[in-house]
């Protein structure tokens, strides 16, 4: 798929945006009821969610061994007998997501599986480091073999409405990413208003982000449906303005199969079914896969899988 090349900074495209918060919250709350996903249909959507998971470990205690176990799970996210019973083969997660010093271990463990490695960078999670060090961290991760870079923005640029500063740092980050895809984490829980979320989304896309992502998983409030709705509409508006396509990644706090279904309904309702694929939609999650596997096991066998079937995540 062609990458989003970005545009010049066009503040006029978003400066008058006004978000009706109660209406956004109402629409978000109505989403879960908009599609009734039962039985086989629901299992198919859960399998699709797995295809779109960025299986994540971002903990101080990460080690190459722990990352290797995560990668084994990414290569084979569901027990083969369950998949065989559903007539599905070759299922992997969308990517694994790790800290830069774990990229090499992840690449080794993933081998020729085709599962991409995403690395966080730019002083994740707060991003409060000098820009040259943040750019150097991107280059390090790319050099280690990262296929995708999940960057964090300087929240202060948004809070001060300094769109030029935000655009310039994102442009520099996009350049440092080179051939690696750039996923721009807005840390929406820090941005104070839905207007700010919408405006930061536009600036990130104008600067060439391949994906916009809600959260690091470390903010007080992480992915929510209202914030995600605002970001999806920004993606739609940017697409209408430029014809460029940008992906969406909710992340942080998504833990249940129900969450995976709700966010897919959001994508289908706001952007269309065509967006439910890993090059346009990812779910960043460290502990979602276990619940999805439990539901799939229940679908196939009529009972919930024991914990032994769920090695990690
Ligand atoms: O990008 C992914 C997030 O860090 C994962 O957050 P989580 O641990 O709440 O699933």
How are the elements arranged and paired?
Elements: H1 21-30, H2 39-51, E1 53-56, H3 64-75, H4 80-85, E2 95-98, H5 103-110, E3 117-121, H6 131-143, E4 148-152, H7 155-159, H8 163-177, E5 181-185, H9 194-206, E6 211-213, H10 225-242, E7 247-249, H11 257-270, E8 283-285, H12 289-301
Parallel strand pairs: 1-2, 1-8, 2-3, 3-4, 4-5, 5-6, 6-7
Helix pairs in contact: 1-10, 2-11, 2-12, 3-5, 6-8, 8-9, 9-10, 10-11
The structure holds glyceraldehyde-3-phosphate.
Write a concise keyword list for the protein shown above.
8 strands; single chain; binds glyceraldehyde-3-phosphate; alpha/beta; 8-stranded parallel sheet; EC 4.1.2.4; about 10% strand
